[in-house]
Amino acid sequence: MSKIKVMPCLDMKEGRVVKGVHFVNLRDAGDPVENAAFYEKEGADELAMLDIAATLENRKTRLEWVKNVSSVIHIPLTVGGGISSLEDMEMVLEAGAGKISMNSAAVRNPDLVRQAAKAFGSEKVTVAVDAKRDKNMPSGFELVVSGGTKPVGKDAVAWARQCQELGAGTILPTSMDGDGTQAGYDLEFTRAISDAVDLPVIASGGAGKLEHFYEAVVKGGAQILLAASVFHYRILRIREVKEYLLEKGLRVNL
Q1: What is the reported pLDDT for 32?
Q2: Do the bridges between strand 141-145 and strand 150-155 make them parallel or antiparallel, or are there none, so unpaired?
Q3: What residues pair up with 10 in beta bridges, in sequence order?
Q4: Is 130 marked active-site?
Q5: Are residues 215 and 206 in contact, defined by beta-carbon separation less than 8 angstroms?
Q6: Catalytic residue among 88, 130, 179, 186
Q7: Domain count of the fold of the chain
Q8: 23: pLDDT strictly greater than 60
Q9: Are 169 and 117 in contact (CB under 8 A)?
Q10: 88 in active site
């Protein structure tokens, strides 16, 4: 098995890191540059930065946030939010991101995934798949866009499979039902995605204790473990998570 990576996530709004539950009731979680530098020092393997209001506010990702954060870290930075064209991707990568993450724009125009993979390489293209439970969908999960506000009547797992075929390099599934709850990753959803694709899958949404990280790997099939609240509010430290995974027999970079 390849080494498991830990990936703190900076959800950004109005220049600050924020965190909510089920994508709402946001509260402040600090300065993005200070957080980024702290997480790299703590042993993060990668970092995500998501401009959570960009799509809803119908604007592009704030490039100055990307520049400021990327200037203080050496680990790969994945940036998402408001990325809807190859030009957007190019600007975000030039601002210091190592990878881009797209969601709503890819659903609107699936060919954008293919174009991005061709232009920048699959390894730089992450597709975020947000979903909520819906028993009318074949997989039981419906795709939602626009920061979790709009269901699109499409099966989330089938969409992840399509993204792989289009050339995406990584899939980032987030269950609306688990986000920010600290009640554990949605293992059923994560596993459904990891079984459907042959790509690295990032577990996201709901990590609250050490066991959750281990379960995301062994039960969910994830290779990368994204978390926000537990790290922002110092409930857990990154090294603590990695040492726990190591004790459990998983491979990590310490």
Answers
A1: 95
A2: antiparallel
A3: 49
A4: yes
A5: no
A6: 130
A7: 1
A8: no
A9: yes
A10: no
Assess contact for 126 and 172: CB atoms under 8 A. Answer: yes
CATH number at residue 69: 3.20.20.70
Q: Is the pLDDT of residue 91 over 70?
A: yes
Which listed residue (11, 51, 88, 186) is catalytic? 11
Mean pLDDT lowest for which of 28-42, 44-58, 231-245? 44-58
Cα separation, 228 vs 206, whole angstroms: 9
Q: Which helix (H) or strand (E) holds 32?
A: helix 32-42
**Packing angle, helices 210-218 and 187-196, rounded to 10:** 30
Domain membership of residue 231 (yes or no) is yes
- The H-or-E segment that residue 24 falls in is strand 24-28
Confirm whether 168 is domain-assigned: yes
Between CA 32 and CA 147 the distance in angstroms is: 20
Q: Are 143 and 160 in contact (CB under 8 A)?
A: no
Closest to 169 measured CA to CA, from 198, 131, 204, 203: 198
